[in-house]
Every structure is written in structure tokens, then in C-alpha cells.
Amino acid sequence: MELGLENKLIVVTGAASGIGKAIFMSLLKEGAHPIGLDIKHYKGSYLSEVWSGDGGEYHQIDITDNLALEKLFSDVSHLNGLVNNAELMGGDSRYGGRTPEAWDKVIGNNAKAAYNLIELLAPKMNKGSSIVNIGSTALDVGEKGTVLYTVAKGALKAMTLVYAIQLAPNTRVNMVSPGNVSSEQNIKFYEENPKMAEKIHSKELIGRSATPEEVANIVAFLLSPVTGAVTGENYVMSSGLGKSLFETVETE
Ligand SMILES: NC(=O)c1ccc[n+]([C@@H]2O[C@H](COP(=O)([O-])OP(=O)(O)OC[C@H]3O[C@@H](n4cnc5c(N)ncnc54)[C@H](O)[C@@H]3O)[C@@H](O)[C@H]2O)c1
């Protein structure tokens, strides 16, 4: 199927690694012009291992810095898409517990930055453009100690619906919510904690986590005009996590 993304200008946040890197690379493959943003330096990033520097662009920028974003996009008059993917990952304890400061940091980074980017870039979006927010199955199958992360995803889900209404019919807005993904970080975690990895995979109906490329496939699909009638939706790709009452290993 032709996705019709040739020469489309699409902003991807968190492009240095994991899912963002895979989205960036899949857009390049489709002939689009991805504009990757990440707080990490390109040199030494996972993206630098697979991208030569041709066909797209990469900017080292903190997406919570609105002034820097305004400056970066001041000369850009049209865009075709935006993927809000960047995120501070991890549970509440990583940010010092559920303090007011931790709320500001995690919600600011994971939800407010996406809101600011949509407000800044939506007026530059061409007719037929598409925004994809990266959510999580954490909204459906919760986990202790992840209040801040999950609240931020809830805000993104709410934004998906309301911006789909606000920006229609010019721009579609959808969400892709993965379960566990074998990003570089998770591969390392699985290797260091094989018993835990086995337990996690036993709860995934397909017996493994999704790859970043599988998430990127769905994102590219939703960015494409072939899904022109889809807006305001949340596409869950959980690897079947939590769908079975019992573990998927044979019990007999
Ligand atoms: N990996 C998983 O298992 C999983 C599961 C469900 C959802 N997700 C979601 O997928 C998305 C990507 O996750 P990932 O696993 O690829 O994570 P990752 O940590 O590999 O990538 C996130 C990227 O965001 C960047 N980033 C964070 N804050 C930033 C900021 N202020 N400015 C610019 N860049 C910033 C980081 O530098 C990093 O490169 C996240 O939204 C995450 O919640 C991941």
C-alpha cells in the first residue's frame, strides 16, 4: 500500500532513540522529510547509528523550552504532521516521589510540552495534515508507582479527542498506545532481568513485546492520507498484554 508521505514535513519529538528513532527512520523510508527533535545530542545517539544525516533534519532542543521552539519554527510556514513521542520514562520514584515539583516536571515534560507544540504548530499545518500522540496501555492496565506517568498519558488522551474536534477538518489527531516495546532501554532491562522479562512476555499473547518498528508502522499509517477518515481515536497495540486471565504458558 502506498502511504503517500513523499516530501511530507513531519515533526517527531524524542527522535534520538527507541520508538521516536523508529518513526523517524520509517518516515525517511517513505520518502517523507522528518524533523527530529530531541534533548540529546545527535552524536552518540542511537539515531546516529542508523541515519547518515540525509533526507531529514535533527535538532537538539529541549521541547519544554517554548522560546527555543518558537525560534526554531519561526521561518517554517507549512507542515504536514507532528508526532508527540518524547517522554521522561519511569515511575514516580525516579522523579523524587509524588511531590508538587515532580508533578510539574513529569506533566510539564510529558503533557504540557505536547500541548505547547500543538498550539505552536497547528496554525502551520496544511490541509490533510495529521498529529499522532504516543500514549500507553498504562491507561488500561495500571501499575503501582506510576501516577505521574499515567496522568500525563491521560492528559495526552484528552488532548487527542479535543484537538481532533478543535483542528477539524484541517488536521486529524490520533493516539497510538503501545504496551511493552523492545526499545534499547527495555532490551537492556530484559537482558539484565531475564526472570522479569520471562514474566512480562508470558502475559503478552504474542509471547514478546512489540518492536519500535511495529509501533512506527502504525504511526506512519495514521500520518498517511490513507487513514483520512480516522480522527480522535486511540489505537492500542498491547501485544495482547492483560487480555488473558491466565499466563499464556501451557498450564497442563
Ligand atoms: N518503551 C516502552 O515500552 C513504551 C511503552 C508504552 C509507551 N511508550 C511511549 O513511547 C514513547 C517513546 O518511548 P521510548 O521507549 O522510545 O523512550 P526513549 O527514552 O527511548 O525515548 C524518549 C526520547 O525522548 C527524549 N526526550 C525526553 N524529554 C525530552 C525533552 N524535554 N525534550 C526533547 N526530547 C526529550 C529523550 O531524550 C529520548 O530520546 C514515550 O511517549 C513512551 O511513554 C513506550
Task: Sum up the structure in keywords.
alpha/beta, seven-stranded parallel sheet, 7 helices, binds nicotinamide-adenine-dinucleotide
Task: Give the SSE layout.
Blueprint: E1 9-13, H1 18-29, E2 33-38, E3 57-60, H2 66-72, E4 79-84, H3 100-121, E5 125-134, H4 147-167, E6 171-178, H5 184-192, H6 194-202, H7 212-223, E7 234-237
Parallel strand pairs: 1-2, 1-4, 2-3, 4-5, 5-6, 6-7
Helix pairs in contact: 1-7, 3-4, 5-6
The structure holds nicotinamide-adenine-dinucleotide (NAD).
Describe this structure in words.
With 252 residues, the protein is an alpha/beta fold. It has a single domain, classed as 3-Layer(aba) Sandwich (Rossmann fold). It has helices at residues 18-29, 66-72, 100-121, 147-167, 184-192, 194-202, 212-223, and strands spanning 9-13, 33-38, 57-60, 79-84, 125-134, 171-178, 234-237. The chain has a 7-stranded parallel beta sheet with strand order 3-2-1-4-5-6-7, sandwiched between helices. Helix 1 links the parallel strand 1 and strand 2 (33-38). The termini are far apart. The structure holds nicotinamide-adenine-dinucleotide (NAD). The site of nicotinamide-adenine-dinucleotide has 28 residues, from helix 1, strand 2 and helix 5. Nicotinamide-adenine-dinucleotide is lined by residues 13-14, 16-20, 37-40, 62-64, 85-89, 109, 134, 136, 178, 180-181, 183, 185-186.
